[in-house]
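quick one before i forget lol
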Amino acid sequence: MEKNTKVIAAFAGIAVLMFGGIAAGLSITKNIGKSDSAISSEKAMKSLEKKVSKINVSNVEARKEQVELDASSLEEELPDISKYPLSVENTTDTYIEIFSSTEKSGEENDGWLNDVAEAFNGSGIIVDGQKVSVAVRPIASGMGMDYISSGKYKPDLYTPSNELWGEMLKSNGVTINLEEEKLLENVAGVLLSKKKHNELIDKYGSINMKTITQATADSEISMGYTNPFASATGLNFLISTLLNFDPKDPLSDTAVSGFESFQSNVPFVAYTTLQMRESAKSGVLDGFIMEYQTYINSADLRGSYIFTPFGVEHNSPVYSIGNLSSQKKQITDEFLEFCEKDEYQQLAVKYGFDYPDNYISEVPDVSGDTLIQAQHLWKENKDGGKPITAVFVADISGSMLGEPLNELKRSLLNGAQYINSDNSVGLVTYATDVYVNLPIAKFDINQRSLFAGAVTDLDASGSTATFDAILVALNMLMNEKNQNPDIKPMLFVLSDGETNIGNDLSDAQGILEALKVPVYTIGYNADISALDKISNINEAASINADSDDVVYQLKNLFNAQM
């Protein structure tokens, strides 16, 4: 009996060793031929599924709500102009107000117009027997155009980065007059890493828009640019790219086809220049766009990238809005003459407004109507044939009660009109627990109606399980991607940034990094630093949207990403 026992034990030992060896062999061989990224993604998915299995998730039946098919008025979307305070205040009762793009009305090297305006206000210039002055309001070119064209607020003068915005104002029926063609010298350019620049030189012999667009379309480089609805450089890049494919007609089938090929190899369009720069730092992008004045003032950029100019010049033209009174016209003339003084032109050079190569634009005159159509063409074709699938993650905890939740609802309901119907959308909400209010589906009229009903019915109470909700939404996206591998997944988290229950950042960060899903965060009276940490994982944007401008901010974000 003892002998038999020993034999059985021996066989059992052999079996353990055998099966153990087989298991080890399988473990070793199962990853053969897989990239590190694929292995990392598989591990992340297992971790994600394990975490989600422990989260209390409930399904909420959505009801349909009537959908407004007509876009809301631009005037209603825009915040009060006080959201964008003056950088230089008038010192007299008789003055002109100037809308200025921010590269010349910001701080330090971006403050040229502020410096000149303050000197002008201190010079004691008299018009019609009265001392006069100027006020400067820093505002992005696209937003400035929106205020003017909507009629919500009109300055006396408008100086965007380039002439394209003036052309669109004309097409929008606004009476403007060109008072100064070139206030400053500046150009837009593509920044290519030195390595990629040299590779393209070796292949093509030179670098220009033609070689850059071709290299992008052929997947030789990864390009990034900014939202052409809001960014002067982004709009310039869009029209330059279209003209590269068809110099005679940027809206032709040839141009559109070429753009689609180009865009299919663009990882994303950045909501902000900062987001684009962070993506470049992480290695996601080989090249991106920027004005020369910003580039030359950034030692880290000059050391790592080579600048290639493109498109129309960024010469800060100056337009008067409407028909100025005789007095305001005289103040305008006096101020523009003051800007031309040698000391202020030398100051402009010191601040970087002096592209050294005497660049001459090859872009022909483009009408405002063409530019507006190009923006809409871009909106329809920017996803390069890969539809977006997004899950909105909305905070309905007790800390969101009242105005924050009301603004969240308003911004989502308004922003929905800027989501392409070819994209797919889901909605997850969270407090102490997590709720799936709307499973992912194509954003057709039915889904829009369900989305509107789900958002309208949101109410706030309970604790804040932010990362539980992010993990649940991420799992929904990954399940959808498993069914439709070509989709571009993304998350939008709308919250005050507070997390006090459930998983935390450390539980979600590694998974998000491995799966490479960007998380855009929108903060409502928020702890922005907490939201920044979430968005920075995969170089997405974080918006500090207070109750004044969240609707407009979300519109721009959706135009860029959805």
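fyi Residues 5-12, 14-35 have pLDDT under 50 and may be disordered.
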